[in-house]
Amino acid sequence: MICGPAAASAGSEAPGGGAGAAVSLPDSCEEELLIRPLHSGDIYASFQFRTLWDTDFLHQGKKVSHYRLFPKSLGQVLSKFSVRELHISFTQGYWRTMQWGQPIVPSPPGAELWVWFHNTVADVDGNWKELTNVLSGIFCASLNFIDSTNTVQPSASFKPLGLGNATDHRFLRYATLPREIVCTENLTPWKKLLPCGSKAGLAVLMKSEKLFHSSFHSQAVHIRPVCKCSSTAWELRQTLNVVFDLYTSGQGKKEWSLFKMFSRTLTEACPLASSSKVYVDGELFDLSPATSVLNTAVVLGDRRTYSVYDLTQKETFGQLRSLNLVLRWKGESGDMLRPLLHAERYVAGFGLQTGEIHTLIYNNHPYRAFPVLLLDSVPWYLRLYIHTLTVTSKTRENKPSYIHYQPSKDRLRPHLLEMLVQLPPHSVTEVTVQFERALLKWTEYTPDPNHGFYVGSSVISALVPSVVAMDTNNTQERPLFSSFFPTKEESSYFVRVYTEPLLVNLPTPDFSMPYNVICLTCTVVAVGYGSFYNLLTRTFQVEEPSQPLAKRLANVIRRIRGVPLL
């Protein structure tokens, strides 16, 4: 169960009002920016915007018609399709876990969508199809290409993150589009969902040409029910994560600033936000201007101290009424906290008939073993030989304690493989399975078939042992970046890891042959039929042979003398 912070209570004070102007509002919003240095010299910026609305879309007979901060387009989607939880992300680039550590909000390359429907929905597949088409229009994306061939129904993965503990996975749908390209046309509708848009607050930093000139970019929308005091509220959390490269964005210098990263500075908080803060992991930085406000938080098993800049305070902006944080690296970055869980995947084999998928899962904990849940969705045109599935750890067979496999159907549904595997301490667990490539119909190939076909990322979910005690008190006010995944145990924290997507070549016909046939056919028609048609339509005339030169001279003389010609 996740409870909203005290700052987002229903009796919050209206922005800009005095003590006597306090009104009871059903919704509130917060915004937050986390700046964290990476040991590669790059910089990580994580935006989080949260809107809480004390209402119930799914209440029988209740129709919501008035929207204040919560986007009406999303509210109508939740109500019409009886959505209980919705999680959607658009990502460009791949998160390099071993170089950057664990991300605040994980996401796979491309587009990802997973939805929990209410248990009163009779036709889940019909609602899912209509929902993807509607979201495709809202976010200006290719989500309409999600169909039964790339949708799965997990049996153990992707538990609800919000209020309630649904166990009937018939109402869960999950799909990815690993080839989806993220650009400005996806960012613009995402920013329009914010209470202040991109006109005020932290959103003014979101300049498209700077965000997309980065090593990694991910934007997401998460909607879930949470508890708010004694009632149920809906939480809309919009996240945007960017990694700026040291050399392309920082010109090779370990000195950063807001203007250097975003080409803009902060001038005010969002007037509709009850909280607007900037957190900087300043243990490796000298900050200018400095701040005396510090906050200690435990994120992903790591306790860090952050410098806090409150944008709702006028003193934060100084006399220039502008905040341009300057971050200067103190020196050596030191040793990075090695991620305890890491995974990667690749395709082995030769030729275009068979192959083998290898998934490597690393447990870097020196003495603790823990289980992980692996989810793999493979397209139907890669026909898995499930009897060749092997799981090995330290050169020994590692038998999974739980396996769920749903075979594919050609042109109808993909393979679904879920396994619960125990990872020994300080080990590498390898999961391998062989497959055979199918031959597609010529109309099923992409416009660039020789580029290959993408296979979505594998998903590894686990409760990782924590070095420090995790905070399980979800009722107190905490930074947004430390409260995305619910924490139920002090000794562990939840982590979701995505592998690289695969690029697989399939047997591809020579698509130049139709072009050659067309050229040959046109040549034959032009030469053969053209000559025949010319012979049929041309008129012939018999011409007399030309006279000798002497006779022609004689006729000229006779014409002059007026004598008849010869």
Summarize, please:
The protein is of the alpha+beta class and 566 residues long.
Molecular structure report:
This protein is α+β, with helices and mostly antiparallel strands. The chain is built from eight helices and 26 strands. Strands 5-6-4-3-7-8-2-1-10-13-12 form an eleven-stranded mixed β-sheet, with helices on one face. The protein is elongated and about 130 Å long.
Task: Based on the model shown, name its key terms.
disordered N terminus; 26 strands; 566 residues; 34% strand; PIG-T; 5-stranded antiparallel sheet; 8 helices; 11-stranded mixed sheet; alpha+beta
Q: Main β-sheet, in a few words?
A: 11 strands, mixed
Strand order, main sheet: write it out: 5-6-4-3-7-8-2-1-10-13-12
Shape: elongated
Termini separation: 124 Å
Please state the average pLDDT score. Answer: 86
Secondary-structure-derived class = alpha+beta
Helix content: 10-25%
The Cα radius of gyration reads 33 Å
Number of strands: 26
User: What is the chains' assembly state?
Assistant: single chain
Low-confidence stretches: 1-23
| Beta strand % | 25-35%
Number of H/I helices: 8
Pfam families: Gpi16
Organism: Pygocentrus nattereri (Red-bellied piranha)
Protein name: Phosphatidylinositol glycan anchor biosynthesis, class T
Region (Disordered): 1-23
List the helices and strands and how they pair.
Elements: E1 27-37, E2 43-53, H1 72-81, E3 83-92, H2 97-100, E4 110-117, H3 124-138, E5 151-152, E6 172-177, H4 184-192, H5 208-211, E7 216-228, E8 231-244, E9 255-257, H6 258-262, E10 275-280, E11 285-288, E12 294-299, E13 302-310, E14 326-329, E15 341-348, E16 354-363, E17 370-378, E18 382-393, E19 396-397, E20 402-406, E21 415-423, E22 427-437, E23 453-455, E24 459-465, E25 492-498, E26 502-504, H7 512-537, H8 549-561
Parallel strand pairs: 1-10
Antiparallel strand pairs: 1-2, 2-8, 3-4, 3-7, 4-6, 5-6, 7-8, 9-14, 10-13, 11-14, 12-13, 15-16, 16-22, 17-21, 17-24, 18-19, 18-22, 20-21, 23-26, 24-25
